[in-house]
What we know:
Elements: H1 4-21, H2 24-35, H3 40-47, H4 51-64, E1 67-72, E2 75-80, H5 83-100, H6 104-109, H7 115-122, H8 129-155
Antiparallel strand pairs: 1-2
Helix pairs in contact: 2-4, 2-5, 3-4, 3-8
Amino acid sequence: xxxxxxxxxxxxxxxxxxxxxxxxxxxxxxxxxxxxxxxxxxxxxxxxxxxxxxxxxxxxxxxxxxxxxxxxxxxxxxxxxxxxxxxxxxxxxxxxxxxxxxxxxxxxxxxxxxxxxxxxxxxxxxxxxxxxxxxxxxxxxxxxxxxxxxxxxxxx
Length: 156
């Protein structure tokens, strides 16, 4: 049987995690980072927020262990730190959908709403999410193109 002290520590840790997820902006950032790695600038482009604001939210998510960063030169790419975060996000969005649905049991059986649709529907802070994300992906593709050309030239 668990000792009360360890059980209490688990409850406090769980409460801290839920508190970190309790802010709409941090929750939306987490939703984005469960889909793919992003830099602070990428998140700013999606949300239209300031770098300081987004960085502050990321700092809290990193401190609690929900988000991890990977350095690539001068850039840091952030992602959900644990596959469990994706499961939690899926459950939370299903619960939110179920709470608003006249038939909550049926809402749980439907497939999850695509991330960008959810963001567009439920967040006033997001400006043209799809276009910003597409621009980020295009920038990354263009940045990797010269490296791919160089590697082909060295082989030939």
